[in-house]
Specification:
alpha/beta, 26% helix
Length: 344
């Protein structure tokens, strides 16, 4: 049956309004998910600030979610009402060159549910059953909402040249950086340095497996990491901030032949890099967009305890206080990492 839902919209920088709309019945292959928890993504924060390069305002927000199946389309075979689930919110055509290669994150029309009239922050959302995943009983709804960024971390690590014994550096101890840390250790990295400018996030990084943490406001991260690697540098670095400075640093800490993985959202997309140094040292940059076929691996890593999500979840708000939740994320005094909007 059609359902009334409340969708938050960023109308102007740091200003959220609510729109009442009607969610239609699920199509034959769709399920309607009653949202239990939706996490605020770093990309949502860029939208909230009016600085997301791919989402001009006004814009929708919300795509990291978990919930329970409330209704199923007449041809759905994999789910029944009451099933606990999370979902892949990426939308793609299924017909273009890249989709036919199963590289759906490269689709020529790729987008996300929140950009075409649905929001993970709303009470309900419809999704094709093929892109909905059972949520194991060992994973809470709150953790289930963080499976989507975990899939991004898994994709970033699996797309990198990390192997057993690799040394890595991660710039940014936000949710993606902390998930990259855990996924990289599970994938074979034996030494990881994490760089940030906030002490409480670096403390959390140490709890989650970082061998070294560097506060870039107090010491030069490039010099420190090179010192700790006998002047060689690391095999792989991960830029998880989206700043020109950290992109440069992620290249400077690499050993010869190393690879920098770029995962941050760059509010200022044009950056200046030393390409001659990259040529001289045979460095590589590989950029990562979201995920492709990584949700199953993410769920397995969380269910088996190889990736911990609960330590990242620091605050929970109801939908009515979503603007307060965004403001809290922008205030480092609040020590927020992952903030959830819940309907319970």
């Amino acid at each position: 049956m059609p359902r009334k839902v409340t969708m938050p919209m960023v109308e102007s920088p740091r200003q959220i309004s609510f729109q009442e709309t009607t969610l239609p019945d699920p199509s034959p292959h769709e399920v309607t998910i009653q949202v239990k928890a939706c996490a605020i993504c770093g990309s949502d924060v860029h939208v909230y600030k009016g600085m997301h390069p791919a989402a001009p305002l006004p814009a929708g927000i919300g795509h990291e979610l978990s919930g329970v199946v409330a209704e199923v389309g007449k041809e759905v075979t994999r789910f029944k009402v009451g099933d606990r689930v999370c979902m892949n919110p990426m939308l793609f055509c299924g017909k273009c060159h890249y989709c036919r290669l199963s590289e759906y994150n490269h689709c020529l029309q790729v987008t996300f549910c929140y950009r075409i009239g649905q929001s993970g922050f709303a009470q309900y959302i419809n999704r094709d059953e093929d892109w909905v995943y059972p949520l194991p009983s060992a994973i809470s709804y709150g953790e289930g909402a963080v499976i989507e960024p975990t899939a991004t971390a898994v994709h970033g690590v699996q797309s990198s040249p990390i192997k057993l014994g690799s040394r890595i550096a991660i710039f940014g101890a936000g949710p993606i950086g902390l998930l990259i840390l855990q996924a990289a250790k599970a994938h074979g990295a034996t030494w990881a340095a994490v760089v940030d400018i906030v002490d409480y996030r670096l403390e959390l990084a140490r709890r989650l497996g970082a061998d070294v943490t560097v506060n870039a406001t107090r010491e030069d991260p490039v010099a420190r990491i090179r010192e700790l690697t006998q002047g060689l540098g690391v095999d792989v670095s991960f830029e998880c901030v989206g700043l020109e400075l950290t992109m440069r640093q992620s290249l400077m800490v690499l050993k010869k032949g190393g690879t920098a993985m770029a995962l941050g959202v760059f509010e200022k997309p044009m950056v200046e890099l030393n390409l001659q140094d990259m040529v001289n040292r045979e460095l590589q940059i590989r950029a990562i967009l979201a995920y492709v076929w990584d949700f199953g691996t993410a769920l397995d890593l969380v269910a088996t305890g190889r990736i911990q999500l609960q330590p990242l979840i620091t605050h929970t708000f109801p939908l009515a206080r979503i603007q307060e939740a965004f403001e809290l994320l922008l205030d480092p005094r609040e020590k927020a990492v992952k903030v959830l909007i819940t309907h319970e």
